[in-house]
Design a protein that fits this description.
The complex is a heterodimer of chains A (337) and B (417).
Chain A: H1 49-65, E1 69-73, H2 77-82, E2 94-96, H3 102-117, E3 125-131, H4 132-137, H5 140-149, E4 153-159, H6 200-206, E5 211-216, H7 220-230, E6 237-242, H8 246-249, H9 256-265, E7 272-275, E8 278-282, H10 291-295, H11 311-328
Parallel strand pairs in A: 1-2, 1-3, 3-4, 4-6, 5-6
Antiparallel strand pairs in A: 5-7, 7-8
Helix pairs in contact in A: 1-7, 3-5
Chain B: E1 2-6, H1 7-17, E2 22-25, H2 32-43, E3 51-54, H3 58-70, E4 75-79, H4 81-86, H5 88-96, E5 102-107, H6 121-125, E6 132-135, H7 139-156, E7 160-165, E8 173-177, H8 181-187, E9 204-205, H9 214-243, E10 251-254, E11 261-265, H10 269-282, E12 287-292, E13 294-296, H11 300-307, E14 312-317, H12 328-335, E15 342-347, H13 357-368, E16 375-377, H14 382-394, H15 401-409
Parallel strand pairs in B: 2-3, 2-4, 4-5, 5-7, 6-7, 11-12, 11-14, 14-15, 15-16
Antiparallel strand pairs in B: 1-8, 6-13, 10-12
Helix pairs in contact in B: 1-2, 1-7, 3-5, 7-9, 8-9, 10-13, 11-12
The structure holds thiamine diphosphate, iron/sulfur cluster (SF4) and magnesium ion.
Thiamine diphosphate binds at residues 50, 75-78, 99-100, 130-134, 158, 160, 162-166, 171 of chain A.
Chain lengths: 337, 417
């Protein structure tokens, strides 16, 4: 097939049609030969961003390793909806141990592979995965230890901004002003507090591990490319994927991709990659949008848009997004549209 | 070969001969010397192939072992006290998943008040975790039990805890008979996992199980421990044929033939008890001792059989069920249900309090006259206790208990236990 140097995007999506790409540039998901590492029939909510993110990421990792992936999974939605007894969606070797120890379990698997292979570079690769709660809160000690030792593990965090599996409680990745079951939309400052919480990709970078990246489920080929890139390194790697949760965010299940794209386009969620603690590339904003466009469709922010809109709170969130745009150099580039 | 060496070193050398493939280490006294010695053997290449991983917590240590064991590697770690509690969630998980990890517990008290010295509170807090628990009496037995532990764990696909008294054994220099690598290789077959993370044959380990099968999974764990009651004596017999000595098994009796009074205990205190029994036997007393080597599964039938001829049983234990009495004694009592005999619980040696021959002589003589309280705290300083109780009655804000007691007692090191 001949390559046509034309940029055609599906209207409003910035996604180039696969048909226009040479086969080697097409997404893993577009191929009928994709691994389906997490198979259909699982019990995620309709439109679950985490289910989508896991399928994209693990299929890409399988593609990059010729099917040689072992996964360790933290307790959380992904674990629960994929393996209700007596069924499992996983077509790969998979282990769930606990909520807060996934990085360490993965370290153990990597150590076993190394000692079994009797070589420095075993062929089988290890992926650890967990939600934002399992990653930024309860699993943080094990994760930081795994980073610091530079164990040969790719850790993927599916960030839906809260403890969704237990009924949408606040985690340290819950964004400011968002309503959860433990940051109620009542009182003088409804929703989650400002000035708290952690952005784990930056903490991962501070460990100076070989590779850190962020991604969203809206940019499939960017996500796949980052997983592929991560697999080119040995040592500790971290990918943080924003995965909208229709149930916890109060969004329509058909808007999952749109919400992820809005998070990126408003600067709320910076998409970049870093090697050895230094940023190497960012995904620029194509059409800058006000944060309001991202906040308004989500019921977890409904208290901001009542009879008297919380103008100051919205401005505060806008300022945080603007800071991200400055800090990571996300501003739209001319000619990108 | 006979060697004079520290208990920790002896255990480290025995573990190394078992060819572990992944060892995770996090420091806590009195376990440190064991993993330090193993780390050195890995680093200088004498133990190879093996990965030695310095983790950031005991919770991570057990979790790394869970991962490595599930990926088919023979896995080992060691801990004690606060460390065992810190890893507790993963301790239960390892047995629930059926992973044959071997762990040394260098028995130590649990705080608060923080205390580094020996008792059995740490291991016994995990008695229902689904791990097999073996208690060593001597350094020789500690060494030998580790070799048997790997065999047992891997045959049953269950984790095994080898418990040895902190400091009293771990830091004591004693003569041990160190086996040869050829002997250990002859006794311990290569590890063939029952389940394994393998891209060639993908399985899901640790899937969620609801009410429809959870009871059955738990029952199977119990059934497997019952199997261990059969396996352990045969492994001990086989051990004798390869290594030429008695080690392990369910229990050990000492001078219990025709005994009217039988003491029950675990661990290194058995040595002191035996000395006292020898002296009392010389003076014509009908007394003996039953040592429990296997605490989980608890050998109910064997314990009953060993004790049923006696008039009274004194369980002397370095642990305590606060609000109830003893832990070991509760288990022993279950073995004796329906038998009419006097039973006494003696809590002794908590937090490293020395258990002296003098005290034991007094205690055992009192027991023989059935003059013991059902629950006794050996060598408890009642003055100290009563003073604090009075203080609490007198003042609402009576202050931290530990600090008050230390003030009363004066310079700790000057006390002469
Ligand atoms: C030690 C422990 N504490 C709490 C829980 C309860 N728990 C299970 S899943 C979960 C929430 C998971 O949140 P997250 O990691 O963000 O994943 P999500 O469900 O949002 O994908 C919690 C709190 C647990 N299983 N173990
Ligand atoms: S609650 Fe959210 S993360 Fe969990 S399955 Fe539903 S949509 Fe997915
Ligand atoms: Mg979450």
């Amino acid at each position: 097939m001949s390559f046509q140097p034309v940029k055609f995007y599906q209207t409003g999506t910035f996604t180039v049609g696969n048909r226009l790409l040479p086969p080697e540039e097409r997404s893993v998901q577009a191929s009928t030969k994709r691994f389906n590492s997490i198979n259909s029939g699982h019990r995620a909510c309709q439109g679950c961003g985490e289910a989508l993110g896991a399928r994209y990421a693990i299929d890409a990792a399988m593609e990059a390793t010729d099917g040689q992936v072992i996964a360790a999974n933290a307790t959380g939605c992904l674990e629960v909806f994929s393996t209700p007894y007596p069924e499992t969606s996983w077509q790969i070797p998979w282990i769930h141990s606990l909520f807060g120890n996934t990085a360490a379990v993965a370290t153990g698997i990597a150590a076993a592979l190394k000692v079994k292979g009797l070589t420095q570079t075993p062929r089988t690769r290890v992926v650890a995965q967990g939600g934002d709660g399992g990653t930024t809160d309860i699993g943080f000690g094990c994760l930081s230890g795994m980073f610091e030792r530079n164990d040969d593990v790719l850790y993927i965090c599916y960030d839906n901004g809260g403890y969704m599996n237990t009924g949408v409680q606040r985690s340290s990745a819950t964004p400011p002003a968002a309503r959860t079951a433990t940051t109620m939309a009542v009182g003088p400052a409804p929703g989650n507090v400002f000035g708290q919480g952690k952005f784990l990709p930056a903490i991962a970078m501070a460990h100076e591990i070989p590779y850190v990246a962020t991604a969203t489920v809206a940019d499939l080929r960017d996500l796949e490319a980052k997983v592929r890139r991560a697999m080119e390194f040995r040592g500790a790697r971290y990918i943080h994927i924003l995965v909208p949760c229709p149930l916890g965010w109060g969004t329509a299940s058909h808007d999952t991709i749109k919400m992820a794209r809005l998070a990126k386009e408003t600067g709320i969620f910076p998409v970049f990659e870093a090697e050895h603690g230094e940023i190497k590339s960012v995904l620029a904003i194509r059409r800058p949008l006000p944060v309001e466009d991202y906040l308004r469709p989500q019921k977890r922010y409904a208290h901001l848009f009542g009879k008297t809109p919380a103008v100051e709170t919205i401005a505060h969130i806008q300022a945080l997004a603007d800071k991200n745009i400055r800090k990571y150099g996300l501003q739209a580039r001319k000619g990108d549209h | 070969m006979l060697k004079q060496m520290e208990g920790s070193r002896a255990v480290a050398e025995a573990v190394a001969m078992c060819r572990p493939e992944v060892i995770c280490a996090y420091p806590i006294s009195p376990q440190t010397h064991i993993v330090e010695a193993l780390g050195e053997m890995v680093k200088d290449g004498t133990l190879s192939p093996c990965e030695f991983i310095n983790v950031e917590s005991e919770f991570a240590a057990m979790s790394v072992a869970i991962g490595s064991s599930a990926a088919g590697a023979r896995s080992y770690t060691a801990t004690a006290s606060q460390g065992l509690l810190f890893m507790a969630e993963a301790v239960y998980n390892a047995s629930g998943l059926g992973l044959p990890i071997v762990m040394t517990v260098a028995n130590r008290a649990i705080g608060a008040p923080i205390n580094i010295w020996n008792d059995h509170s740490d291991a016994l807090s995990q008695r229902d975790s689904g791990w097999l628990q073996l208690f060593a009496e001597t350094n020789q037995e500690a060494l030998d039990l580790h070799i048997q532990a790997f065999r047992l764990a891997e045959e049953l696909s269950l984790p095994v805890m080898v418990c040895m008294d902190g400091f009293i054994l771990t830091h004591a220099y004693e003569r041990v008979d160190m086996p040869t690598q050829a002997q250990v290789d002859a006794y311990l077959p290569k590890y063939v996992p029952r389940q394994m993370l393998d891209p060639g044959e993908p399985v899901s380990i640790g899937a969620m199980v609801g009410p429809e099968a959870f009871m059955e999974v738990r029952y199977l764990a119990h059934a497997k421990q019952m199997e261990a009651l059969e396996l352990i004596p045969s492994y001990a017999a086989e051990f004798k044929s390869v290594f030429g000595r008695d080690s392990g098994g369910l229990t050990h009796t000492y001078r219990t033939e025709d005994a009217e009074t039988i003491i029950v205990a675990m661990g290194s205190v058995l040595g002191t008890i035996k000395d006292v029994i020898d002296e009392m036997r010389d003076a014509g007393h009908k007394i003996g001792v039953l040592g429990i080597t296997l605490f989980r599964p608890f050998p109910l039938a064997r314990v009953r059989e060993s004790l049923q001829g006696a008039k009274r049983v004194v369980v002397l234990e370095k642990s305590m069920a606060v609000g109830l009495g003893g832990i070991l004694s509760t288990n022993v009592r279950m073995a004796l249900s329906g038998l009419h005999m006097h039973g006494y619980t003696v809590i002794a040696g908590l937090g490293g309090r020395a258990i002296t021959k003098k005290s034991l002589h007094g205690l055992f003589r009192q027991a023989e006259q059935d003059a013991l309280e059902p629950l006794t705290f050996l060598d408890l300083d009642w003055n100290m206790v009563n003073k604090q109780l009075e203080r609490e009655k007198a003042h609402r804000r009576s202050g931290p208990v530990a600090e008050n007691l230390l003030r009363d007692v004066g310079v700790v090191a000057a006390r002469n236990y």
